[in-house]
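Supplementary Methods, section 5.1.

A reviewer requested that the exact input to the structure prediction be made available. We therefore reproduce it here, unchanged from the version used in the analyses.
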Amino acid sequence: MAPPASCVPRVQREAGPFAPTQPTAALAVLVGNQRSKGCDVSGAKLEILGEAECVRLISPGGVGRLVFAGRFDLTVLPVNYVLHDGVILFRTVEAGSTDEDLRTGIEHAEYRVAFEVDDVNTETHEGWSVLIQGPAHHIDDPAERADAIAAGVKPWAGGEREHFIKITPARITGRRIRHEPDA
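The structure derived from this sequence is encoded token-by-token as follows.
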């Protein structure tokens, strides 16, 4: 759900020339929730985050959303991850659909993906969203695999999840929305 029309000009003014015409999905839901609860969203402020702040926000690890175009079209999957040595690291089933969909079939060619992490507080009507874009690298080398195991990413889903994939950020962007009264 898009923010009310009365909020868009202010959001775009404060975010500058790089303001999206639509906020990220999590932030759009947040603004939509404010409106559905009868909240005054005129004080909603969209802040564009720098790369260092984005990395700080996602550094504790947790759950993010892996986004890619797979064999069944666009796919968004929640995965638990760790940030390790500057890369996003997660585990999946070896020879499973994620493993297969993220292989190009061309040696040394990596599949480009997006990875999104967010945190939304429905009580305070605030939240942030970080988007990472970059290649997904399958960890098949024994030395890389040992390093990935040492990073401590633990799968939440049951079953064998012994295949590691890392995303090396090529681009990191983020946005934060705060509910502030107009001055």
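The chain has five helices and eight strands. These observations are discussed further in the main text.
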